[in-house]
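Go through the following before class.
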Amino acid sequence: MYVGTLSFDLLLGDVRSLKEKRSVVRPIVAELQRKFAVSAAETGGQILHRRAEIGLAVVSGDTGHLTDVLDRCERLVAARPEVELLSVRRRLHSEED
């Protein structure tokens, strides 16, 4: 069993309130969950208007599949025009860790 995680540090565009921030972050989280069957949530920066951290995790029995899903998730977030992807942190864990 392998577990892969991604943590995205995002700079949001023209956002002036936490309500506007949620209207940007929620659709991204929902799309990740729907398209790739991953667990995803806003995991940091909740009190900042223009910054967000989204974390996701996926479990697989095959590292190739795991890497493919993580790559596709990263491309999806990077392609969103309303956010700027500042950094991505990727971790792969196995049963031996």
Observations:
- The longest strand covers residues 83-94.
- The mean pLDDT is 95.
